[in-house]
Design goal:
The protein is about 40% helix and about 15% strand. The protein is of the alpha+beta class and about 220 residues long. A six-stranded antiparallel beta sheet has the order 3-2-1-4-6-5, with helices on both faces.
């Protein structure tokens, strides 16, 4: 069976489908969050437009940009947070997709600067371990991306202080799963804190899972 041919058009469809998916999942509301994909072998990306209307988003709304910010199509303006995405692509050659959400539980933890420890094995396999929080920086700046990269270490996910969630992955499906998993773990952590003290699994227990992450899912 031949592989699906990757084109700008097919990548735009991927971005639209991913954007609608995070909206249906309740990870963003209209006008917030963003999704992008790198164009292979070029310093270019495709990203959702500013103040995105997820319900009515179509392929022609997706903005084609160079990493330096030059817009290569003229339909809509890009998300004002494109610099955040570019920072990830420049630092992570294996990252093909970047997703930024404002999912409620994860954003709540980002506001009180509470990191999410390793609670379940899937955090190690898909995300690379615990979920840390970047230092605060204003949105729409290059510095917020630099802070995110510094805090991510070798993982694929970070909480942006007082701002939400940032994940990256080797493809659309893995990135969507990462975004969903961060919110799931944030909800479980918040809920467990209401009952008692959560048991944090030591990293030493997950040597094999770290090997799986590094070989199949990591982007660093």
């Amino acid at each position: 069976m031949s592989k699906k041919r990757i084109t700008v058009r097919s990548l735009k469809t991927d971005v639209v489908n991913a954007a609608k998916w995070i909206y249906r999942k309740g990870l963003v509301d209209i006008g917030e969050g963003n999704v992008s994909t790198r164009i292979p072998y070029k310093n270019e990306l495709l990203i959702t437009p500013t103040y995105n209307d997820y319900e009515n988003l179509i392929e022609k709304d997706i903005v084609h940009l160079r990493f330096d910010g030059k817009q290569l199509n003229k339909n809509k303006s890009p998300s004002t947070e494109f610099r955040l995405h570019v920072s990830i692509y420049k630092a992570r050659p294996k990252a093909q997709v970047v997703i930024h959400t404002h999912s409620p539980y994860a954003t709540m933890l980002s506001v009180i600067k509470k990191e999410i420890p390793i609670l379940m094995e899937e955090m190690v396999i898909l995300l690379g371990g615990d979920i840390k929080i970047s230092n605060f920086e204003l949105a729409h700046t290059e510095k917020i991306g630099i802070n995110a990269i510094n805090a991510m270490d070798k993982t694929n996910a970070i909480l942006l202080a007082n701002h939400g969630v940032l994940v990256c992955g080797r493809n659309i499906d893995l990135s969507l799963k990462a975004a969903e998993l961060v919110e799931k773990m944030a909800m479980i952590y918040w809920g467990s804190l209401q009952i008692g003290k959560p048991f944090e699994i030591p990293k030493e227990a997950f040597i094999k899972f770290y090997e799986d992450f590094n070989s199949k899912f990591s982007t660093y």
